[in-house]
């Protein structure tokens, strides 16, 4: 998993482990991706795109607005680090102005919508994805949960919210990944209702939500550790049907 705000590889933090587990279990519940045409938007360094390719997707395309991230994703697959990820096609494009690349049966988007700078861009992202999907296709998106700051401390799970600034169509949250040194980033605190409104406006027929799932307890990340996280997780999984 990744967060598309930085040029750094995803930190190996507990919340990213929960994100990965949530997405993998959702894909398994859909029956996997074998022989599907798949798209990963805001692909970063290619982690999720590689997962789709290794799962047997007929075609996998990764899209990111940052040329450097796309370059690194291509280097990663050419170096053989992702196995089946050699099948991934990478494209530099803005999600709010995405060209026709499909049609696709399945689209994934990890934290993409939380970085829409305004409502127009948010709706454009959903429209661009829907235009690239076959009828009946699925969109799986990890989206950040609103309302946590200043009540929830995610420091034990690898990130911290520093400030919440009222700004434009959605508040701006200033945060950091707790790496060494910390990596600072920002995102918009959109409500889940805003995501649902944009999805329906784009033509998706259904919108559903699933809570974050956590990996099996192990070592210091025991059941009490994960239970506290599930009470106030960083993200939820949004599932939309085209």
Structure commentary:
With 242 residues, the protein is of the alpha/beta class. Helices cover 29% and strands 28% of the residues. The chain is built from six helices and ten strands, in the order αβαβαββαββββαβαβ. Helix 4 crosses helix 5 (192-202). The model is unreliable at 1-11 (pLDDT under 50).
The strand line-up of the biggest sheet is 3-2-1-4-5-10-9
Note the beta-strand portion. 25-35%
Number of strands: 10
Radius of gyration: 17 Å
Structural class: alpha/beta
Question: Count of helical segments?
Answer: 6
Task: Output the helix-strand order.
Answer: HEHEHEEHEEEEHEHE
End-to-end distance: 24 Å
Main beta-sheet strand count, sense and barrel state: 7 strands, mixed
Can you give the helix content as a percent range?
A: 25-40%
Protein name: Class I SAM-dependent methyltransferase
GO molecular function: methyltransferase activity
Domain Methyltransferase: 39-137
Organism: Streptomyces racemochromogenes
Please summarize what this structure is.
The chain is of the alpha/beta class and 242 residues long. It is built from 6 helices and 10 strands. Helix content is 29%, strand content 28%.
Provide the descriptors you would attach to this structure in a database record.
242 residues, alpha/beta, 7-stranded mixed sheet, 6 helices, globular, disordered N terminus
